[in-house]
Design brief:
Rossmann fold, 43% helix, 7-stranded mixed beta sheet, binds S-adenosylmethionine, alpha/beta
């Protein structure tokens, strides 16, 4: 059963509204339907709700590359067999290959993201001997126990409904002596964008569902690691604010890196209109700064 009460940083009335939605979702059973939550996320990244996702690298490459570099500088990649879960367009996988990884397995549940990743990594000159691609869910990996020296997860955990179960699954595929390194959304991540989104979305379609985005703080991540049997646990927090030229540009960054998964609940004929309404709000309220709150977490499995 995924957690019910949302603890991200947001104004009190909106937090109450999100949590009321969760309570209704629990009563109706929606809160336990984790397959439906994952399907929405997958569809968002598959571009089923908007074309914004095709601008993922254009708008988000430097953001994710920055986080990837901070994460990977603590990991010894040399000669290691690595799996990058929720690889997206392959930003972290490429950096790991450049750092001497022997083999990388790229996993994402979105076919579109995986195809973009494949194209980019093959264009960079890597072949089947060092790289493979799997369309799969982080919570059900198609790999045997003890397969990898390193498991990586860059900005994915906040989008997964069963976070503890996912950490246990990541640990299952880790070899004794291996390590998990992840970055995740902290409580204040994208807080201005989320606040603006929730203020503009059409509540008629949104009440009664568990929110799909679940930021976590350092202690919560440490507990997930401990409960998965990992040792040498260590966390770090990075926070900064990106300034965009206009509110519209800030919205475009937010939309391109999220795939607008929340549009799932809207009838298809009004999705574009609703998206434009939110974008116009960002512009008129001058929402030009977006906070990044990233928690890095590391843990290893005893030999
Ligand atoms: C914010 S993007 C991060 C992508 C990439 N790690 C990066 O740093 O650019 C989140 C990615 O996680 C993938 N994802 C979300 N939930 C997943 C799950 N349960 N299993 C596998 N992939 C998932 C999405 O499809 C998307 O590609």
């Amino acid at each position: 059963m995924p957690t019910l009460f949302w603890t991200g940083k947001i104004s009190l009335p909106l937090r109450i509204m999100i949590n009321m939605g969760s309570i209704i979702a629990w009563v109706t059973g929606n809160a336990r339907n984790t397959s439906a939550m994952k399907e929405k996320m997958k569809n968002g990244y598959d571009g089923k709700y908007s074309d914004y996702i095709h601008k993922y690298d254009e708008m988000g490459l430097s953001h994710y590359a920055e986080i990837s570099k901070k994460l990977i500088e603590k990991v010894d990649c040399s000669g290691k067999e690595i799996v990058d879960i929720g690889c997206g367009t392959g930003i972290l996988s490429l950096i790991s290959l450049e750092k001497g990884a022997a083999k990388i397995t790229c996993v994402d549940m979105s076919k579109l993201m995986l195809d973009k990743c494949k194209k980019k990594i093959i264009a960079a000159g890597y072949n089947d001997d060092v790289i493979s691609f799997h369309e799969a869910d982080a919570e059900r990996l198609p790999f045997a126990d003890n397969t990898y020296d390193v498991v990586l997860l860059n900005m994915v955990l906040g989008m997964v409904p069963n976070q503890q179960a996912t950490l246990i699954e990541l640990t299952r595929v880790l070899r004794p002596g291996g390590c998990i390194a992840l970055s995740s959304h902290g409580p204040a991540h994208y807080m201005e964008a989320i606040e603006s989104l929730i203020k503009t979305i059409n509540m008629r379609y949104f009440s009664g569902h568990r929110f799909e985005f679940w930021p976590r703080d350092e202690n919560e991540l440490k507990n997930f690691f401990m409960n998965s049997g990992l040792n040498n646990i260590h966390t770090e927090r990075l926070t900064w604010r990106d300034e965009f030229k206009s509110g519209s540009e800030a919205f475009d960054f937010f939309a391109s890196t999220s795939g607008l998964w929340w549009n799932h609940r809207l009838p298809p004929e009004i999705r574009d209109k609703e998206t434009e309404k939110t974008r116009a709000y960002f512009q008129s309220k001058n929402v030009t700064g977006i906070t990044s709150d990233v928690v890095l977490a590391f843990g290893s499995l005893s030999k």
